[in-house]
Structure formats: C-alpha cells, structure tokens
Amino acid sequence: MTPTTDLFERARLSRRARALRSSEIRDLLHLAARPEVISLAGGLPDPSGFPVADLGGSSATMLRDRPERALQYGPTEGDTELRALVAERHTKATGRHTSVDQVLITSGSQQGLDLLARVLADPGDTVAVEDPGYLGALQAFAAAGLDLVPVPAPHDGLDVDALAHTLDHATTPPAFVYTVPTFQNPTGATLPMTRRRALATLADRHDLLVVEDTPYADLWFDEPAPPSIASLSDRVVTLGTVSKTLAPGLRVGWMIGPRWLVNAATTAKQAVDLHTSSLGQALVATLLGDTARFDHHLAGVRSSYAARASALVEALHTTFGDRIEVDPPRGGMFVWARLPDIDTRALLRLAAEEGTAFVPGDAFAVTADLRDRLRLSFATCDPARLVEAVVRLGRALDRIGAEPPAA
Length: 407
Ligand SMILES: Cc1ncc(COP(=O)(O)O)c(C=O)c1O
Description:
By secondary structure, this protein is of the alpha/beta class. The protein has helices at 3-11, 15-19, 24-31, 52-65, 67-71, 80-94, 108-120, 135-143, 160-169, 193-206, 259-273, 278-289, 291-320, 344-354, 383-402, and strands at 38-39, 103-106, 126-131, 147-152, 177-179, 210-213, 236-241, 253-256, 325-326, 334-338, 356-357, 359-360, 373-377. Strands 2-8-7-6-5-3-4 form a 7-stranded mixed beta sheet, sandwiched between helices.
C-alpha cells in the first residue's frame, strides 16, 4: 500500500479511532518478543497453574449433560448459576447482602471498565484515577473520551487526602474514582485499612462512586488482604475476574453494583457482544461451585507466586545492592522497583538485547514522573529463570553508563 492510499484510508476513520495511539512502549516490547528473551514484562498468569484437568473434565460433562447451557445463546446478564455463585461469594466477603440482580457477568473485567466508562460518563467528563495506574483502564477511559484526573498512588496505594483535596476543589465532580486497592498493577501496593475506611467515608460524604477493581485480591502470600472497600460503603462497584486465579482465556469477569447501574451496563453490553461465552461461564460456575477444590487450587497458585516473588526480590538485591529500591510485594504478580537516575526506557532497549524485558514505569503514568521505575512480573518464570533474567538485566545496567544514548 502506498503512503498516499494509507492517508486516504486513515481519513475514513472516526475522530475517536484516530485519537487512539499505539503505545511507544508496546513497540519497544515488540523488540523483546523473541523466544530466547526471558520476559518479565507481561501481566500473564503462570500457564502451569491453569486447572487443565478440571476444565477438561468439566467441559466433557457439561457438553454431554447440558449442551444447551454451554452452547446456546444466553441472557446478557450472564449464566444464572454463575451469577448466584458470584453474589453469594460477594455477600460472604463483604458482609453485605448481594442479590443476583446486582451481578452482571462480563467478558473479563476489562469489559467492565469499558461498560462503566460508557454508562457513567459522557465524553469530556472526568474520572479520578490512580497515578500510576492500570494501563488497560486508563486506555478504556481515554477511548471513551473521558479526561483523567490523576491522584497519586505511591507505594502504599491511593492517596485519599489528595483525592479529598481534588473533590473539594473540582468545579464538576468526577463521574467516579477508579482504584485497585489490593496488590495494585503496577505497584503491587495494598491500601491500608485506615485509608480504606477514609475512602469509604469520603465516598459517602461526596456521594462519589468508587470502582474497586479486584483481580489480584485472592493472590495473597502470607495473610489475606484487608477487607474490600465494598465491605465499607454502598457507593462501590466491584469488578472481579477469574483471569488471574483460573485462566484469562476463559474471558469471564463480573461487575457487582447497584441495580440501576447493573441494568444500564447490561443494556450497553447487549450492543457490544450479546453475552459472555456460555461455555466459559458454565465452566467457571462448575469450578467456583466446588469451593474446596477451588480453595485448594488457589492455595497452590499463592504458594508458587510467593516463592517466585521472593526469588525475584532476592535476586534484585543480590545483583543491584543499594542501586535499587524494591517494595517486596505481599501478593499479586508484580514487583515495582526504582533505579535512581536510570531512564528505564533506555534500559529496556539494552535489556532486550541482553535477553530480558520489563515494563518501564512511565508506561503507567498519567502525569507522575516515573522514568526511573520499572515493573517486573514474576508470575510466569520459575525462580531459576527469574535469577537469570536479573543477571541479564544487570548486564544491561552495566552497559547503560558505558554507551552513548541512542539518537
Ligand atoms: C488491574 C486490572 N484490571 C483488569 C484487568 C483485566 O483483566 P481481565 O482479563 O479480567 O479482563 C487487568 C489485567 O491485567 C488488571 O491488571
């Protein structure tokens, strides 16, 4: 295709499509997509933890005994048995009664983010977000034409005082605040209980809707995470998913919230994909319904991730000594680190050449300066490979001062 045709084709795109940008970091990570690279960049769960045998057995039984449930069109709200299970688990976890009609099954929690942006805000409205925050949420909100209002989220999560200040001074209040309070992506931070309470109180005082995204909450290492914000206030919409606990390819997540919101999101979802995969939902219902088995599975994932996290943290300390600052995570899939005075984008280029990869901190920034930060995922590599990845990263760091910066 000639460049002229390319320009002509581009003009056909909507203004919104033209505003969407492929990220420079995605292009950089492309450099690292070679089989010999040990990548700590992706937020992928460990495939050896996928419950393959259980899924295989449940699929065979489901297709034999209840083919219509697994293969027919289904209601947009989701599989009734799965919704009931999700409502029951939420009631137990929050101590607040949750009914089935407060649950919408979504195609991953990513779809929940997109639906919330569509039904809670109009283009040009604002949404308060953690800075740094989950890139997929920032992209979903920006794609819906929302303006992001950053709220600092340092090593221990959302700065609730800063959010209060924003609310006190905003001419128009944000449509909602988006937070990942437990084992955040990218920082691994967990909001302490006092600030969870402060956030709930603030939400009640300002009639502010809190979107609490919880994909990593079950992946704690030594002790369960503090109670959710949803257990402290009614002004909370919870997003959940099985992507990090069972398998992301199932594409099954959920939104739990007030009925008026769930109804609106259901109507919006109808226009997007009619409903989430019937087979995926039926399988997830079977696996979640067997509580003892699911808990056993979770315990295995937790102990494997705990061992990997500590191997990575130890390797970083051994290789970099006091050149690195690391907050050891207490759960989730990520280590967030700082290499003072190092531009981690430049480091990524060299790291890719040395055979490893990570995500530079500024990929997750709204306005914060995170050029010396990096996010390393420990989920997909065993401890020996994590150690090797850090050795390669060490070689890249040794080169960074020795080579002139790329033009
Ligand atoms: C904080 C956060 N929310 C949502 C998602 C999307 O997950 P899902 O696979 O359920 O769409 C991710 C995925 O990495 C995430 O880190």
